[in-house]
Amino acid sequence: MTTPGALCVTVLGSGSRGNAILVEAGDTRVLVDVGFGPRSLAKRLAAIECAPESIAAVVLTHEHVDHAQGALPACARWGWPMYATIGTLASLPSPLLPVRPIAHGASWSIGELRGDSMSVPHDAADCAAIRFEHQPSGARIGIALDLGHVPSGLPAFFERLDLLVVEANHDLDLLLAGPYPWPLKQRIRGERGHLDNRATAALVADCAHPGLCGVVLAHLSETNNTPATAVDSVTSALRTRGTQSGATRAGLVAASQRVPVGPIGVGERFRARTVVPRQFELSL
Fold first, then answer.
1. 2, 23, 144, 237: which has the fewest C-beta neighbours closer than 10 Å?
2. Tell me, what's the pLDDT at 243?
3. Helix or strand (DSSP H, E) at 109
4. pTM of this prediction?
5. Rounded Cα–Cα distance for residues 196 and 168 (Å)
6. Would strands 57-59 and 82-85 be described as parallel, antiparallel, or unpaired?
């Protein structure tokens, strides 16, 4: 049983040009990925009235530019420790700041949050799916931003979540008919590339249960996908699997590259704060 208002997430921006997700649990705030420079990140945090000094740590999923380009300067500027796998840390310039190596299968704590990670297939050193649990309440969130296919253990890793943030990068037909060169199309649709809407829909259906309060579709391609296409694909899969009631209690929303979306929360906090994209755009 989770405590109302115990956990929420705000997607500051998500896509091929930058990713950052704010997770709030009780008195603890954590950023997952910093794919924006400090100036842009500060504007995004100010837009949601979050002081950078209130953030306890950064957790990186992997080292690619759209997830990590702002991590080192932001951590240096605001004194945040950085949590990441050894493979990810080894792929970054040696940071002159506190680092906390994490290992798959071993839990770690940041304030009121307990974190776990699982390796997922992507063309990075060691891309991680992240699961957080708010220890006082038991509320749980899963985040998987870049993966070429769904590994067999991921639905179990994401079992009984309250919130799920998951990549829905492209619609396969739009990708194949689109302007990208063939080698890039092959990389995107490859086993270590990015999830298409159908694969994401199947994963969401596997994770759906009556306690799932919210699903955020993230990392949408601005060229090879649309929010409506992604949401329709997942909704259709949930209907087909007979699990729609388990994943629409808090609605299904697609994150934006330019516009913060959230907060999306558990219990009363969610019901009181409808997911509405901010009515402005921020520079990248």
1. 2
2. 56
3. strand 108-110
4. 0.91
5. 6
6. parallel
